[in-house]
Amino acid sequence: MAASPASRGFVLLEALVALAVLGLALAVLMPAGIGAVRQLREAEALGRANLAAQSLMAGVGVAEETPLRPGITSGRLGDGTAWRIEVRALPAPSRGNWQPWAVAVVVDDAGGRPLARLESIRLAPR
Q1: Model pTM score
Q2: Could you write out the three-class secondary structure of the chain?
Q3: Which residues, including other chains, have CB under 8 Å from residue 126's CB and lie 6 or more apart?
Q4: Is the CB of residue 110 less than 8 Å from the CB of residue 82?
């Protein structure tokens, strides 16, 4: 049994409506997907920055590049991320052979926006 021309036109109209609904759904969902990708990139950047800050903090007072003395040491990682280590002496007790130091490690993105900051107190012989 052959379909009448009117029913064929109705099927075409249904297909056009379905495509329009699909287009609207994609238009609504696309920004959400783009936002999710942006958040994923941000999370990856923060994770890398925290890992870099932990690594730099572990080397303070141990590595020759980051001695435990007052001042600021800075540099850049391979991806353009900037870091700085700030060291300052804290008041020491009158007795004892140890000097406390406040150490802060800051990691900024290439645009100068802070991504990670770690702070610690280190003890070193006087």
Answers
A1: 0.69
A2: CCCCHHHHHHHHHHHHHHHHHHHHHHHHHHHHHHHHHHHHHHHHHHHHHHHHHHHHHHHCCCCCCCCCCCEEEEEECCCCCEEEEEEEECCCCCCCCEEEEEEEEEEECCCCCEEEEEEEEEEEEC
A3: 92, 97, 98, 99
A4: yes
Mean pLDDT by groups of 10 residues along the chain of 126 residues: 59 86 87 85 91 92 77 89 94 84 93 92 86
Residue 77: partners with Cβ closer than 8 Å, 6 or more residues away: 52, 83
Closest alpha carbon to 68 in 120, 95, 103, 92: 103
- Both structure tokens of 24: 């609207």
Amino acid of residue 90: L
Structure tokens at 95: 């007795």
The whole-angstrom separation of Cα 60 and Cα 28 is 50
